[in-house]
Amino acid sequence: MVQPTRIRPTTVPLFAVLTMALNALWSNRLRTALTMLGVIIGIASVITVTSVGQGVQKATEQQIQALGSNVMLVLSGVARSGGISQGSGSASTLTWEDAKAVASQAPAAKAVTAFLQRPTQVVYSGENTSTSLLGVDLNYPEVKNINPQTGQFFSQADLDAAKPVTVLGSKVRDDLFGSGNSALGASIRIQGGSYTVIGVMEPKGSVGGQDQDDRVYIPLTNMSARIVGNNAINGISISGFWLQAEDDTQLEAAQFQVTNLLRIRHNIYPPQLDDFRLSNQIDIINAFGNIVGLFTVMVGAIAGISLVVGGIGIANIMLVSVVERTREIGIRKAVGATNSAVLSQFLTEAIVVSIIGGAIGIALGVGLAFAAAQLFRFPFVISLWSIAAGLALSTTVGLIAGVIPARNAAQLDPIAALRSD
After folding, report:
1. pLDDT digits over 227-263, tens only?
2. Crossing angle of the two packed helices 326-334 and 281-324, in degrees rounded to 10
3. What's the structural domain count of the chain?
4. pLDDT tens by residue, 265-276
5. Low-confidence spans in the chain with pLDDT less than 50
6. Euclidean distance between CA atoms 242 and 115, whole angstroms
7. Interhelix angle 251-265/96-105, nearest 10 degrees
8. Domain edge (last residue) among 274, 306, 324
9. Whether residue 99 is found in the same domain as residue 139
10. What pLDDT digit, counting tens, does each position of 327-361 carry?
11. Domain that holds residue 232
12. pLDDT (0 to 100) of residue 81
């Protein structure tokens, strides 16, 4: 008796499985597009948010470093009114003599520049603008790394004679004279006094919420005598001073030296508190970097949640697809398709949807990040890890989201499947 030949299920080649999956997805283009949408939005959000956060952080670091990463700020003490602090620099606890003493006696100090600062109104020929008025000495351009773009800065003769001359920030020049117009030689009014414009500073932009171009500079001696008044007993009162070290590695030594020197000069002994406050550019960079980093992580987590939602959408639509294609699955199994072949096809479809959606999401995210960088004028930064993470996430989402629908499809009884509508 001849034994009947048993047909052994053959393993379906990967290329054939991939072809069937692509054909199935293409025949239901609208459903496929909607399935991809969640992954696209999630991946694009992750890349865009990460890029924008890194770009903003880098732009801020560049701006601060342009002003000098080896610079330390020393502010006068805090005045209190009714138990409420008025903020650093509100009390007259520092003098120009303190700044000069630090410059000559602190070994880590390369240069020191003192300043007085007040809000003011500047008027020229019917135009006026509110700005910040700074009385400074001759070391200010060197320490703050900012120089006149046109004209000149004060001379020693201007400082000694307390001359009514001024150097404008570029924004103030534009507000009073119009963008690009010359202001040299013009006479403007500051606090009721007439000042001759001798220079306009180069643009520096905004750092830490403060516009470096929205300022007006006059000699420190003039501001002390004519606008603030010499209200210190032992010299000219100042709001604070900037100290420039040789490099940022010397800032810690400079901070130690300045603290001890000022405590001796001001007769401050433990447990008395300092009547001044110190900060440096490195601290500002680190603090801002931490804030931006936390914000980026937070928004990135929200974007990651949208990616999970996209995965749930894939699983949901794949489950619906199994129900819709029950008869197709029954026919395939009736002609010899194995459970593993059906499982492979549906799992491949889910992974293909996620990979294509991830690729589109990466392209969209890079495009949005580039557009944001151009629009808001910060460096365009794309990290390879965010792209790699995007691809890995999209593949993982597809794999996880496709497992249950694929198993359901593979376990369908072929006879019951053929009987379905």
Report:
1. 876 555 667 889 999 999 988 788 889 999 999 999 9
2. 70
3. 2
4. 999 988 888 989
5. 1, 5-10, 80-86, 88-89
6. 8
7. 130
8. 274
9. yes
10. 777 777 777 777 787 778 778 877 888 888 888 98
11. 92-274
12. 47
Tokens read off for 132: 């910040």
**260, amino acid identity:** N
